[in-house]
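dumping this here so i dont lose it again. seq + smiles for flavin-adenine dinucleotide
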Amino acid sequence: MSRSGGMDAKVVIVGASAGGVSAAEALRARGHTGPIELIGAEKHAPYDRPPLSKQLLKGELLASDVALRASTHLRDLNVAERFGVAATALNTKARTVTLADGTNTDYDRVIIATGVSARQLPIRNSVGGVHTLRTLDEAVALQSAIADAKRVVVVGGGFLGTEIAAAAVALGVDVVLAGKASTLLEGALGATVGEQVAGLHTSRGVELMTGPAATVHQLRVKDGQVTGVEFRSGEFVQADLVILAVGSEPAVDWLRSSSLSLTDGVDCSSDCSAGEGIYAVGDVARWHNPLFNVSMRIEHRTNATDQAIHVAERILNGDTTAYAPVPYFWSDQFDVKIQAHGYLRGHDEVKVIEGSLDDGRMIAIYRTGGTLTGVVAVGAAKALRQWRGHVATKMDWHDAISLS
Ligand SMILES: Cc1cc2nc3c(=O)[nH]c(=O)nc-3n(C[C@H](O)[C@H](O)[C@H](O)COP(=O)(O)OP(=O)(O)OC[C@H]3O[C@@H](n4cnc5c(N)ncnc54)[C@H](O)[C@@H]3O)c2cc1C
């Protein structure tokens, strides 16, 4: 067996979603001729996750509409599909991946694209009426639960919680959104922009609970069915449906017996390699992004594809070029599309330089140290593109302010 990379290497990709599928496609598009095996724990053909908390919850798309590709696409690319079977171990010495059905498959190169799973609260204990949202099956179950619900508590004021709250309110359900930060999306966008998002939710009928008092103390349960949430403040909120959107955990349990470093996701070098012949892409990958000089792991849809393309190129070229993107994400809240470029986490300052969410046009820029590190905008596509360019060139903050 060839231990080399190059066009005829056998590549095993673990995780059959945005990152995994993009890696297979990118390899073939660049002339890779060796065997490619795509292993996915879910029984479904690969599907896209962003619509799950938006159009699918609102009934605007069906489960069959969120497929990533046409059903024959991967077979047409001569990619061997092994869906409905999880990988359970990686042996980096023998270069094998073990699967839940007891079989092993060997590799020259392995790409880890196992994403993240929804974090649970220890209080959940499989109570009826308590849901999380990460997978298509969970989205379908949640959609039908919302249709039957009268009053919903969404726990978590991040992107997922806010999108679910927006979708549920649009369906005519009473929604209480509880986040323990001081305002919505504070961790992701900062308090100034977060306040505007909170204002948007309140104006559309979402009841907000924020701050430490909105931390869940326990669920109240009757006959195995949730009846409401008790908060740390002592307040009780009645609900027949509770949705937990309290973050995610990198899906790395299957790698625990391997020699890989797993601090928060799969620790990679700047080129996204994690060991000899091993790469990671998408939500599960933590790598050093030299553009921001930061070790990052980002859960953004477009990153899964871009990082997969980068890794495919490293496998084929046999080089160690660093992956240095300007991250991008979007979020749909009601009729508002929030878009962001850059790395906003841990920023030192946010400045809203134009408009507000209420106006339907808003631009905010972010400073880390002395540098412009991010931009968030609503309804300002052209300006957003220009600011993205300034983030990519690491514009000095004072220069950015004088431009604004
Ligand atoms: C509801 C929702 C809405 C989102 N909305 C947005 C948005 O608006 N904008 C945005 O930028 N991003 C959004 N995201 C994030 C985006 O979907 C992710 O960044 C993207 O899906 C990451 O792709 P991935 O391939 O890295 O991981 P995933 O999509 O998580 O896929 C990983 C796959 O690996 C499989 N797997 C896990 N463990 C194993 C194993 N041991 N063996 C085999 N297979 C395994 C999983 O079953 C899964 O299918 C959203 C995510 C969710 C859940």
